[in-house]
Design brief:
alpha/beta, single chain, 2 domains, five-stranded parallel beta sheet
Length: 325
């Protein structure tokens, strides 16, 4: 008889992006099922803390996780140093699925007889202090980015655009989220300017920033590479005044450099008022601009050359190749 999968239920305790009725019904069904399961307060919080519970779950063998978008869950575990295996893992998305669908997938055919067995979890309860990290202050909300390394090309635009030191480059030059507590709650600006839609904020309202799959329209939008250098060297306030002129679909509109600038300015002003950073004008004149240009050119050059070579091979000699966006 095949081994029953470990069942993990996430309360998503710090956000209302998962419908309350769905969470409540899934939890009710699990408790009534006669099946053992583990409930955790918030996977985002556990990931930011790199809590040992993440690695224990990842190493449990077959596992079913009732949480949010599978792409977000995958990279939350990876960010905690507890990568989920490529096989034997099923993530049930309570943000979009019905409670009936989620329960059917978790229990494999219906509820059993007798009370469910909610296994004691060694994961901390919401906000429970386990040390002196900034992540464990009562005021901190687990809002921070995780990077989808299946999409990331390490252009470093996120690191150079962020004002608060959330990102750093590792010894081998790979961009990583190293200071999640520095991120400003409800600001997804860095995700909006990522050329590959590789930055995920699991608690954000809309895709692909929230971890939803990246669609054709997102790719079309992102193929027109965001020119951070031009944005930051120009009149940022004029740019902000002109935002929203382009007509875009609701989802494509999430990947919007004008929204990113507005959020970046708002956070910088709030931090400047608190004495944390200088005014935006000072940041615009920093060497960051040259760093962005160098990294962007280095990252995109091979792709551009490959595309040009492909165009030359596929187009007749007497016809010009199409312009590459």
């Amino acid at each position: 008889m095949p081994e029953r999968a470990t069942i993990v239920y996430c309360h998503c305790a710090y956000s209302d992006v998962v419908p309350a009725a769905v969470k409540q019904e899934v939890l009710r069904a699990l408790r009534a099922s006669g099946v053992a399961f583990e409930a955790v307060a918030d996977l985002c919080e556990l990931s930011a803390r790199r809590d040992p519970a993440m690695k224990r779950i990842a190493q449990a063998g077959a596992v079913k996780i009732a949480a949010c978008y599978p792409r977000a869950v995958k990279w939350l575990f990876a960010a905690a140093g507890a990568a989920l295996p490529s096989e034997g893992v099923e993530v049930l998305n309570m943000r979009v699925g019905s409670a009936e669908e989620i329960v059917r997938s978790l229990l494999g055919g219906g509820e059993g007889a007798g009370p469910g067995r909610e296994a004691p979890s060694d994961a901390p309860a919401r906000g429970e202090k386990t040390g002196d990290s900034p992540l464990e202050t009562p005021e901190w909300i687990p809002w921070f980015p995780v990077i989808d390394y299946d999409r990331c090309r390490n252009c470093k635009q996120c690191m150079n655009f962020c004002l608060f030191g959330v990102y750093e480059a590792s010894a081998d030059g790979t961009v990583k989220v190293v200071n999640p507590a520095n991120c400003k709650t409800n600001c997804p600006a860095c995700a909006r300017i990522c050329p590959q839609a590789a930055i995920i904020f699991p608690k954000y309202k809309a895709g692909p920033v929230n971890g939803d799959e990246v669609g054709a329209e997102d790719l079309r939008r992102q193929n027109v590479k965001v020119d951070i250098v031009s944005l930051l060297k120009g009149d940022v306030y004029e740019t902000l005044r002109n935002r929203g002129k382009d007509a875009r679909s609701p989802q494509a509109g999430e990947m919007d450099e004008h929204k990113a600038l507005a959020e970046r300015e708002k956070c910088s002003q709030a931090s400047a008022a608190a004495g944390a950073v200088g005014p935006l004008e000072a940041l615009l004149s920093s060497p960051m601009i040259e760093e962005v240009r160098a990294e962007a050119e280095k990252t995109t050059a091979p792709e551009h050359e490959d595309r040009e070579a492909s165009d030359e091979q596929s187009e007749p000699e007497d016809e010009p190749a199409d312009d590459w966006d």
